[in-house]
Amino acid sequence: MKIVVIGTGYVGLVSGACFADMGHEVICVDKNADKIDRLNKGEIPIYEPGLEEIVRRNTTSWNLSFTTDLAIALEKAECVLLAVGTPTDEKTGRADLQYVHAAAKEVAENLKDVAVIVTKSTVPVGTGKEVAKILQETRPDLHCEVASNPEFLREGSAIEDFMHPDRIIIGAESIESKNIMQRLYRKLIGEGVPVLFTNIATSELIKYSSNAFLAMKIAYANEISDICENVGADVSMVIQGMGMDNRIGGKYMQPGPGYGGSCFPKDTLALTYIAKDAGSTTQIVESVIKSNDERKLRMADKIIAACDGSVNGKKIAILGLTFKANTDDMRYSPSLSIIPKLLDAGAKIRAYDPVGMSEAQKILTQDGIKWCSDSEDAISSTDAIVILTEWDAFKTLDLQQVLADMSGNILIDLRNIIDTEQASEIGFKCVTLGK
């Protein structure tokens, strides 16, 4: 099939590359000429393991190409994926659909023949209808079908998630759109990946409901972690015991400093507005949002408490800045809440992240942060170390050498990735979650 992907952000670039790897002819379109130029040179604008290789392989085979020219890209297109951003509107808190609406209008203006227009972006319920209305109003002479195909990609493992998904969700309300979507996913369907066909509204809501549920599991694990610390229980064993129940499962139940990233924060908030517009309530989801926001700030308090109640004038090494490992994504990262609070308390921060440094420096512009070249540089002469992101490099630190390089001996592991028994024997004062 000939597929056009509108948008070369995280979802658009990964989707386009993977569909090309399935044998489709894919053209990715973006208005950002600099980004398209970089992609045509083989430069990947985001950090995602395996993405550079899959892009290189498919541009070499001519299955994948990049352009700013929408009209040329749409020639003979059978399927057009809208993969533009839907960020939170800072004024309203709702999902900002201006880019989706603009893309739909431009597609309609440039289409020469009928195609299925698919919302790949995460969009509120009713967006499919709005897209159909825009298409009809812009091109009443050209009847195009609309479909919904939400993505379920985890940053850091997006290629694996796309090529070996748990399920494929398709919102399609005509035989034509269903047939096109089945052709689009023929390879994965042939490999036995389950497909659920629904109407468009159901497909749109499945995405938000899934992310809100996963966010709830994380927030729940964090609250159980706090209880464990106060009653002498071990959160890792509590979660293991819970996870042995097939009705619960252990995934997304690891305590941490709070969830972040491009999906959970904005999608949970958007779901509350979807519910309000529908005359429903979301007390659980609203509590999850509040719990997570407070969690990040409490982690700063936890660090201060571990430093004998004051970090004024103390050097604190922050290992990990991105919201999770294997990505350079800083959106809603716990570090963006924790570091400013520590700075306000008088701390001197020495920060390091394996891939997120440039992104972090764009956002964390306060005085008092020293940007370090590696973990050894960050640790040097510090009073305390804080592990904020679960990068593999931090799991294998030489603790003897780390302690020798420090001025103090406080190790605060907010991901529970360090063997604290070993660290304590060496001489560290260890602070972890849920123990």
Summed up:
It contains 19 helices and 14 strands. It has 435 residues and is an alpha/beta fold.
| CATH architecture verdict of the largest domain | 3-Layer(aba) Sandwich
Largest sheet data: 8 strands, mixed
Number of domains: 3
CATH fold name of the largest domain? Rossmann fold
List the quaternary state of the chains.
Answer: single chain
Instruction: Please state the CA-atom Rg, rounded to the nearest Å.
Output: 24 Å
**Would you state the CATH class of the largest domain?**
Alpha Beta
Number of helices: 19
Low-confidence stretches are none
What would you note in describing this structure?
- With 435 residues, the chain is α/β, with parallel strands linked by helices.
- The protein contains 19 helices and 14 strands.
- The radius of gyration is 24 Å and the shape is elongated.
- The protein starts with a strand and ends with a strand.
- The model has no long low-confidence stretch (mean pLDDT 96).
Task: Considering the chains and any ligands shown, give keywords for the structure.
435 residues, Rossmann fold, N-(1-d-carboxylethyl)-l-norvaline Dehydrogenase, domain 2, 3 domains, 6-stranded parallel β-sheet, 19 helices
How are the SSEs placed, and which strands pair?
Blueprint (H helix, E strand, L loop, with lengths): L1 E5 L3 H12 L3 E5 L3 H8 L10 H10 L3 E4 L2 H4 L5 E4 L15 H13 L5 E4 L7 H12 L7 E3 L9 H6 L4 E5 L2 H10 L1 H5 L4 E4 L1 H32 L3 H9 L20 H14 L5 H24 L8 E5 L15 H10 L3 E5 L4 H7 L5 E3 L3 H5 L4 E4 L4 H4 L3 H7 L4 E4 L6 H7 L2 E3 L4
Parallel strand pairs: 1-2, 1-4, 2-3, 4-5, 5-6, 7-8, 9-10, 9-12, 10-11, 12-13, 13-14
Antiparallel strand pairs: 6-7
Helix pairs in contact: 1-3, 5-6, 10-12, 10-13, 12-13, 13-14
